[in-house]
Amino acid sequence: MTTTATTDRADRADRPAPPPLLRDRRFLRLWTAQSVSQLGDRISELALPLIAVTALHATAVQVSLLTALAWAPNLLGLLFGAWVDQRPGKRRLMITADLVRAAALATLPLAHLLDAVSLGQLYAVAVVTGSAGVLFNSAYSPFFVRLVPRSQYVEANSRLSTSRSASYLVGPAIGGALVQALTAPVAVLTDAVSFLASAALLGRLPVTEEPAPAGDAGPPMLARARAGLAFTLRHPVLRASLGCCTTVNFFTFMAAGLTLFFASRTLGLSASAIGLALGAGATGSLLGAVLAPRISRAIGVGRAIAAGAVLFPAPTALVAVAGGPLWARAGALTAAEFLAGAGVMLFDINLNSLQARVIPDALRSRVSGAFGTVNYGARPLGALAGGLLAAAIGTRATLLAAALGGCLAVLWLLPSPIPGLRSLDSLDEPAPDPAVTAP
């Protein structure tokens, strides 16, 4: 008797091989749009905290609050995903999100010209750009799987992550130089322009959009949101990866809101020195993105995910123990960025490809929203916890605690099927859970 899984594999074998990604104009435009946007993001990630630290003399708690507010909209990701799930034209939603982020960021250089930049404005910009980012990400997942064949998920994610890694390589150095030469608020304008460029490139994508939902049929938004969360928690791969990602994000964001503060205030590094150190260290991300597919083939997708889950948070300890002459302090920041960048690429590329493989098409936006609500929702909580803990026990001790806590995230994976997974081809086609699948 022929099983469904066997039939699915036979059907996939009979399909013609998709064209190489580098000859696919649709993917190349998406790749270019993401690359331009990522480069701008690296500049803002450096400039926004430096506005708070150097221009507005913010405390550790205030800097952590800025990081928390940027990620706080992800707590509503469950609702974003359910809403996006019922909307046709995912590309239009992504373009809208890019335009909103560009407009919000452009208010900072304008306020700088009027000598009116404040912490309140920084907080508002963080919330608006964070909300638009959640909208973009909720639409991106179903858009990506319509654009890229299943057999090319790992390759596509590797190329996209390579661009992200390259942005970490050059972005901080460019950002540091721009901040030093033009001031941080003006440097943010670069990110606003990058979002405009991304929107223009996405607008030129000749992608066939999915049909609009038929009338008002189907359950209400809250019911769809619950369905996405229920499926995520029922699925053994998604449940374990969610626990791991959430733990990693909580502890790494305990450190993320404090690293630039610590490097500037405690280590005494200038904006250009921080930018150069982060840029040099970002070669680890680039190397990790390039090698992730090879490593996953050598040791298996599951083991690569587990290795990345430890290598990503652990190097924060190097920053915490940094001291001595300038070259040693800058070198510790560089080494930590290098190792963490390699780890996060190994973790993200393989885990994103695995998730794309196991989530049914009908549930992608809802699962993406549910996953983002819990996973990314831990980021603002971690940032706030980091600021409060730093005020209580000091920044250096908080960074050490974040490194240790982040490494514990791998414990979520050990009892799951993930560590034993050799390749994505060994998985059957995703089958929706009838208990939670709804139109």
From TrEMBL:
Membrane topology: Multi-pass membrane protein
Pfam families linked to this entry: MFS_1
Superkingdom assignment: Bacteria
Domain Major facilitator superfamily (MFS) profile: 220-439
Keyword Transferase on entry: no
Coarse class of the protein's main subcellular location: membrane
Ranges that cross the membrane: 120-140, 240-263, 269-292, 304-321, 327-347, 388-414
UniProt-annotated location(s): Cell membrane
InterPro entries attached to this UniProt entry: MFS, MFS_dom, MFS_trans_sf
PANTHER family in the record: INTEGRAL MEMBRANE EFFLUX PROTEIN-RELATED, MAJOR FACILITATOR SUPERFAMILY ASSOCIATED DOMAIN-CONTAINING PROTEIN
Name listed for the protein in its UniProt record: MFS family permease
Protein species of origin: Kitasatospora paracochleata
